[in-house]
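User: Need the bound-state model for glutamic acid:
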Amino acid sequence: MDARLEAIRDTVLARNPGEAEFHQAVTEVFESLGPVHDRHPEFLEGAVLERLCEPERQIIFRVPWADDSGRFQINRGFRVEFNSALGPFKGGLRFHPSVNLGIVKFLGFEQIFKNALTGMPIGGGKGGSDFDPRGRSDAEIMRFCQAFMTELYRHIGEYTDVPAGDIGVGGREIGYLFGQYKRITNRYESGVLTGKGISWGGSLVRPEATGFGTVIFAEEMLKTRGLSFDGQRVVVSGSGNVAINAIAKAQALGATVVACSDSSGYIVDEAGIDVDLLRQIKEVERGRLKEYQARRSAVDYVDGGSVWDVDATVALPCATQNEIDGDAAARLVRNGLLAVGEGANMPSTPDAVAVFQDARILFGPGKAANAGGVATSALEMQQNASRDSWSFAHTEERLTEIMVGIHDRCAATADEYGDPGNYVLGANIGGFVKVADAMLAQGLI
Ligand code: GLU
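Assistant: Bound-state model below.
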């Protein structure tokens, strides 16, 4: 890392102790930014990096709610409003027992650059809670969401901060959150949340967008080597919204997706995953992946273990952060891997990224490859602002244009900075320069 940047990075780490994932995300971005600061000394003079690493506002709050047996439960809620240089804070809410300030800050920090890369007018933010939705009844989920919004409502708004979903937050939760916001504020403010239901202000393609976008991005990377998804053997991690839609899109493009996982284990279905069955189990029944095996012949279910033990030519990690380590990456590379598209945020550890890059694997980092979700959220905001709703075909076309645009911008930036094919460099520099220019133009804020 450039010595000037390293000094700033060390200060950031020292004043944010114990936030391991945030440290990792900051370090990864800083490693790309040395050459930009050679060309743009004004960024150092303007203390852009110091400002970027300090969120504009961080909110931590108590979420008290009653479970079905009448017992009082207390969770912690977060919203980190990281950077609004390009637009209102924008980013999802994650409900998962692992959520803490460091995780929310890593996600919010990544979101700044991701959102800049989309070319849409959105700043970066993230939030969530350590609430565990697993095993909770629908009524408990509703009461939790209402309690969460009872504090969050005062911090958000269509021109201020626009939350959406992430792990543990999908259409059901956004519905309960929106209902409570409307009730407290007495405003039908469609643009305050994205990922809404289609009949009350949501956008077609938003549910599919992150998974579809990841595959579109990976397809563009494959094209640079004269390849495509057609005939590829694909492994996807996860089996939530991002994973399911990545599987559907990869198979539509002619690939065979042979494996996917949940937090308990993984399935191997050599004939190609039956997406309708997977949707039925995960989205309709809210069940576990294990149930897939009983309902389809010749499927292996491996309890525990890592889905990255399954060979693939294309890997699409769509579960969570740091799910592929250096050893798993090395095994995949030895067994014929060509490309990685990150559907999750920061799923590859720094060691894994180094293995992929040393082997010249096509590697699409999350902040570029999974930007289709938030980009389509911005399309939802656009539809809300004009009180319009677009067709599936039109919205999908816009998503495709945006993903191809992100790919091309990352590739062009990597070329410009002398490291062709390095999408990590391209994404970090491309996102950063846009935000840094806007910050300088807006003065010392
Ligand atoms: N949580 C998603 C992400 O990581 C989507 C955020 C949004 O739509 O605002 O980008």
